[in-house]
Amino acid sequence: MELCPSIKNILLLDSEGNRVAVKYYSDDWQTNSAKEAFERAVFTKTQKTNARTEAEITMFDNYIVVYKFVQDLHFFVTGGENENEIILATVLQGFFDAVGLLLRGNEDKKEALENLDLILLCLDEIVDGGVILETDANVIAGKVDSHSMDAGAPLSEQTITQALATAREHLTRSLLQ
Amino acid sequence: MAQPLVKKDDDRDDEADYSPFLGIEKGAVLQEARVFNDPQLDPRRCSQVITKLLYLLNQGETFTKVEATEVFFAVTKLFQSKDIGLRRMVYVMIKELSPSADEVIIVTSSLMKDMTSKTDMYRANAIRVLCRITDGTLLTQIERYLKQAIVDKNPVVASAALVSGIHLLQTNPEIVKRWSNEVQEAVQSRAALVQFHALALLHQIRQNDRLAVNKLVSSLTKGSVRSPLAQCLLIRYTSQVIRESANTQAGDRPFYDFLEGCLRHKAEMVIFEAARAITELNGVTTRELTPAITVLQLFLSSSKPVLRFAAVRTLNKVAMTHPMAVTNCNIDMESLISDQNRSIATLAITTLLKTGNESSVDRLMKQITNFMSDIADEFKIVVVEAIRSLCLKFPLKHRSLMNFLSNILREEGGFDYKKAIVDSIVILIRDIPEAKETGLLHLCEFIEDCEFTYLSTQILHFLGIEGPKTSDPSKYIRYIYNRVHLENATVRAAAVSTLAKFGAMVDTLKPRIFVLLRRCLFDNDDEVRDRATLYLNTLGGDGAVVQTGEDVKEFLFGSLDIPLVNLENSLKNYEPSEESFDIYSVPREVKTQPLAEKKAPGKKPTGLGAPPAGPPSTVDAYEKLLSSIPEFANFGKLFKSSAPVELTEAETEYAVNVVKHIFDGHVVFQYNCTNTIPEQLLENVTVIVDASEAEEFAEVASKPLRSLPYDSPGQTFVAFEKPEGIPAVGKFSNMLRFIVKEVDPSTGEAEDDGVEDEYQLEELEVVAADYILKVGVSNFRNAWESMGADCERIDEYGLGPRESLAEAVNAVIDLLGMQPCEGTEVVPNNSRSHTCLLSGVYIGNVKVLVRLQFGLDGPKDVAMKLAVRSEDEAVSDAIHEIVASG
């Protein structure tokens, strides 16, 4: 198992270090207070840095943390100390860009909370139990933002808008490929 | 009063961001979850409620068992809706709730329906959910679908099945292993991530089969792997194969070309993974390193902090083993000192300190001084340690490096940082004689203004040892005596001891020290007064310039020749009674653990702390164990316990080793037995010992082991009487006897009837070395001289042809079972002669010292001169006897 790149956690905090959405994939933090302590430590260590143009990186407590900020949102991805830093940065970039796409460029805390369902689905599509599922932001966002009817549902049940949404999804899919 | 309160509220309203979850409360949300039961579902509203539930969980809220069950059942109703968005939320919710086994059954059919749905999104997610919550029994039912999913033409579905396989392999390996044909097919997939997941799973399935991994790597390194992540995996597997085949291959390293080729890959993560893999190869050559260093050097000037960090961190590691290979990057590295990211800057500096040459030291120090002020303590400690190693490497530069250390010592900093600096100065003082006097003065200045009691006392202690040996000890007195005025009681007491040490060691200073010590008699702290009184009375001479007696020095400042762990244990065991505590009853033996010592990474400088404590002693554990057995309770004090001697070959049915416990008039053999057969239970286990070749021994007691289940070690004991105080030797043959019962492996229960059986063990010997304790002395020459030649016995022996001088030395050390002193057990290569010093304590508490002089006589023959000094002639003779008969 240890040979496979693995993600310890993905954090999305606000500009005061509070949780917007977090997902832990490792048993290193058993309790909620341990998790909060880690988040606080990461936040205080990174808050003064400028991680707005390029992803930044730091190392502490034998973890590697890569991070990037936009407005009042702070994105973090944590890996073990022997992890390939660039793989972690790729996951971070995928998460960051996917959230940007899903919030249609209005990346701030308010928008993120209003679309929390999308953010949670986004986390669910990036990493599964520590294993990287997908790193391409367009694919991640595409998988999350597919509000359409079940293809198996009879057409008569679909409204015009839903039909349009389905059509649009098919179109974007074919464009992405 | 009211107004400010209102105002405060206003303020908060203005400042607080609007949040859709403002004032959210668990009870209310759980109520809202009732909409899941509506006959006419509103997907949008249901999604919102699930989001609220997930928000609560995400904020650290927990649901009680009842609440979780209720929510779970309500959520399962939502499978009726055909809304994809809602279904996605349902999947996430089920995973978060991690339902129990009987709840899982409720959703199984819905999930299995989704798993075979035509909608890709349903199939992929249903697989992930089902595999997350399922147990082994359900897995066999859905196995068929999972195998199909692995080769599904939709990459999302295939990935979902493969990743689930990776997780399931931990819990149900035998099932997942059956999928390897499908997984192998998926490795050839055109979709990048499917390939990555398939490769990860395939390797995990085969990881215990070295040949299969070898084959996998050699076939894939030839072909083209599309996904950068899969390529990284392949690089990791390749380096594993290289590591494992390193011993068998000579000449060109296999697969090196593949790694080198990856340095030209288009993805940065692959380039870096390959470069890192090359730098970590065992015994990597400069030629192999060069291309990897070149790409890392390019990364150093990247605009991306992550790349710079990755590169400098790797180069930093390389610099430890191959400093020369990294010097090419020094210019790039120097520009990183001003990097915005302080982690990168610190790594750059410490790398430079490792690779720098003597001429660049001064320039480097100038750059670092500016840098130190704006980094955190944790980084500063790293830098301090790097400077210490640099100074040890270039002792000529000690002046500027020591100056640097003393400057930063004066600046603000926490305890750990200050301790790191002080430790470094102490190590430099010890190892570089020229740096001693300046270093001591820096420390003196530091304690003038030191807020840490621990550091002050440690420095005072160190001054007491080193100060008197300097050219002008008197100049330190002022600093020390100032402490007596200005500090807390702990530091004052330490200062008094230090003063006394100066008085004892430097006779000319004695009268003046006495004046100072007398003033300390009026201190308001007991400990300080007690110490001053003790020193004034024992140093003697009433303050005149006279020499202090050796015995007084030994009494006051001599080292305690008893391991502290042993003393601590004896004191804990001592029960207050008429009889006072006898310090000589404390066992002196330090259990040597050669294996553990070998593992310890090199010699680590320990700085101020006491010399490294001896390895933890198992003597006490044995002592406790034996004294708890009534049969052996009256044998008296345990003299020595041997290291375990194996009586069986490795990997036999029963593993037995024996520990010999030597008492004054008895010997106890402790047989440690392990049953390695799961289908057997052994009962009434004893060892039948035949002592016919050990005439002086007579069996007195035996303690059988009642039951020995599979894989849980147990002990049985046999005790012998022997002539008191005499080092009797002999050979014992052993037979394990027991009643064996069959155990049903499925239930773990043993049958009622057993069969008596025996098992032959190897022979065991009690040898003379068992009667000698390994006890070292710190100064062999002193000990040798003070022992005197009264009971000296000298003789010469021919040891016959030997493989090497070192082999002969080790053989004699093993034979005598004594402690080599002053590192004399190491024989330099190609030397023709060698002197080895040994020390020990013979049974009856007799100190023994041995001087062995070896010489090569002809090409292979080794001759040895053995000189023994002890407190008893008979013992000296006995040592010769051991060698003569060995």
Short description:
Chain A is α+β, with helices and mostly antiparallel strands and 177 residues long. Chain A contains six helices and seven strands, in the order ββαβββαααββαα. Chain A has helices at 32-46, 85-102, 109-114, 116-126, 137-144, 160-176, and strands at residues 7-14, 19-24, 56-60, 63-70, 73-80, 127-128, 131-132.
What this model shows, in words?
The complex is a heterodimer of chains A (177) and B (886). In chain A, the strands form 2 sheets. In chain A, strands 2-1-5-4-3 form a 5-stranded antiparallel β-sheet, with helices on both faces. Chain A has 177 residues and is an alpha+beta fold. Chain A has 6 helices and 7 strands; from the N terminus they run ββαβββαααββαα. Chain A has helices at 32-46, 85-102, 109-114, 116-126, 137-144, 160-176; strands at 7-14, 19-24, 56-60, 63-70, 73-80, 127-128, 131-132. In chain B, helix 21 packs parallel to helix 23 (377-393) and helix 23 (377-393) packs parallel to helix 25 (415-431). Mean pLDDT of chain B is 82; it is low at 1-15, 591-607 and 609-617. Chain B has 886 residues and is of the alpha+beta class. Classes of the chains: A alpha+beta (177), B alpha+beta (886). Chains A and B meet through strand 2, helix 1, strand 3, helix 2 and helix 3 of A and helix 3, helix 5, helix 7, helix 9 and helix 12 of B.
Set out the fold topology.
The complex is a heterodimer of chains A (177) and B (886).
Chain A: E1 7-14, E2 19-24, H1 32-46, E3 56-60, E4 63-70, E5 73-80, H2 85-102, H3 109-114, H4 116-126, E6 127-128, E7 131-132, H5 137-144, H6 160-176
Antiparallel strand pairs in A: 1-2, 1-5, 3-4, 4-5, 6-7
Chain B: H1 2-15, H2 26-32, H3 43-58, H4 65-76, H5 84-97, H6 101-115, H7 120-133, H8 136-150, H9 155-171, H10 173-176, H11 180-187, H12 192-206, H13 210-222, H14 228-245, H15 256-262, H16 268-279, H17 286-300, H18 305-321, H19 323-326, H20 330-335, H21 342-355, H22 361-372, H23 377-393, H24 398-410, H25 415-431, H26 436-448, H27 453-466, H28 474-486, H29 489-505, H30 510-520, H31 526-539, H32 550-557, H33 564-573, H34 594-599, H35 619-627, E1 640-641, E2 645-646, E3 654-662, E4 666-675, E5 680-693, E6 698-703, E7 705-708, E8 714-721, E9 730-742, E10 755-760, E11 764-766, E12 772-774, H36 780-787, E13 793-801, H37 805-816, E14 819-820, E15 833-842, E16 846-857, E17 861-870, H38 873-885
Antiparallel strand pairs in B: 1-3, 2-3, 3-4, 4-8, 5-7, 5-9, 6-8, 9-10, 9-11, 12-15, 13-17, 14-15, 15-16, 16-17
Helix pairs in contact in B: 2-3, 3-5, 4-5, 5-7, 6-7, 7-9, 8-9, 9-12, 11-12, 12-14, 13-14, 14-16, 15-16, 16-17, 16-18, 17-18, 18-21, 21-23, 22-24, 23-24, 23-25, 24-25, 24-26, 25-26, 26-27, 26-28, 27-29, 28-29, 29-30, 29-31, 30-31
